[in-house]
Amino acid sequence: MSGRFAGKVAVVTGAGRNIGRAQALLFAREGARVVVNDLGGGPNGDESGDAGIAQQVVDEIVAAGGEAMAEGSSVASMDGGAAIVAKAVDTWGRIDILVNNAGIVRAGRIDQLTEQDWDLVLDVSLKGSFATIRAAAPVFIAQKGGVIVNTGSTSGYGHYGMSNYSAAKEGVAGLTRTVARDLGEFGVRCNMIRPISAQTTTRTEGVMWTIERSRALGQTFNWNRPLALRRTMPMPESVAALAVWLCSDAAAHVSGRDFFVQGDEIGVFPEPELHRAIFAADGFTLDALDAPGVADYLVGDIVNRFLPGAR
Ligand SMILES: NC(=O)c1ccc[n+]([C@@H]2O[C@H](COP(=O)([O-])OP(=O)(O)OC[C@H]3O[C@@H](n4cnc5c(N)ncnc54)[C@H](O)[C@@H]3O)[C@@H](O)[C@H]2O)c1
Fold first, then answer.
1. Please, what is the Cα angle at 149 between 65 and 274, to 5 degrees?
2. CATH says 9-269 is which class?
3. Could you identify which of 75, 153, 282, 305 might form a hypothetical disulfide with 128, taking C-beta atoms 3.0 to 4.6 angstroms apart as the criterion?
4. Is the Cβ atom of 255 under 6 angstroms away from ligand 1?
5. What residue ranges do the domains of the chain occupy?
6. Phi, psi (degrees; rounded to nearest 5) at 113
7. Whole-structure pTM over 0.90, yes or no?
8. String of b and e for 215-244 (b: at least 16 CB within 10 Å)?
9. Distance from residue 20's CA to the centre of ligand 1 (Å)
10. What are 53-104's pLDDT values in tens digits?
């Protein structure tokens, strides 16, 4: 098959629907052989979904003349991650691309979240990304090449009622930056995307109340820009275009970077940097911090958006 990924093997986790499905279809359209992983779970990580959804995506790919295999393991265990990568290597003798897309949401204000809410969300998004990368990394190192795309969220920047999800997705950001450093010398790249593909997913329905509550409280929503959720513009294909492009040779120089994509917009977040700094040759004391002008210089322009009486 011809295309940008002819001869390549791609693995996409959580590819049975929505964003992951669009990514799998695009890889296949561009000539890659694709492992379509999905356990067919419900949006909250329960088992109420349809285990056949990965096979349906495979059927679509095959009907269009492509090559794909369904894989039903959960990413949330080391064994699952190993099985997903092994499916590619055992079937086609290689893996070139790994897209960690699987993710779930269990929303609740921090005082109401359960240990299970915490563990399930962290296990799928964060440990799940580690599990597949851990399995693929030795192959990538041995073949001196490979590409990883991880999936974060702007909710990682803070999102009312989603502390578990925020923690998982910012964990993905740290994982991404460090894997890029760990594997760069072997020609392996690792980037992340923070997608919004609203209203394409039942998952999103479970979080609309958190957005409404955030608005009612007058908070800024996850990052310092008015929320522009385009309800009528789901476009998982736009998200897929960015993720798949990042895996292509056109992005051969891009690693350790953090992208945003929704419908009609793609952006890139800056490398983390200090906003402002103060120095004390002998170390800081409370008196030094209380000295006139010091706190004003450091945080005087930081607007309180969360406490009563916000200015
Ligand atoms: N949709 C959005 O607006 C949005 C916003 C920010 C981030 N994201 C992230 O993008 C990714 C895809 O989002 P989506 O809206 O397509 O989600 P989705 O819920 O529609 O699809 C996710 C898929 O992952 C599968 N999955 C869940 N747990 C799994 C596991 N343990 N192992 C294997 N597969 C599993 C599910 O069965 C499902 O088919 C997720 O990581 C999500 O957190 C989405």
1. 160
2. alpha beta
3. 75
4. no
5. 9-269
6. -70, 140
7. yes
8. eeeeeebbeeeeeeeeeebbbbbbbbbbbb
9. 7
10. 999 999 999 999 999 999 999 999 999 999 999 999 999 999 999 999 999 9
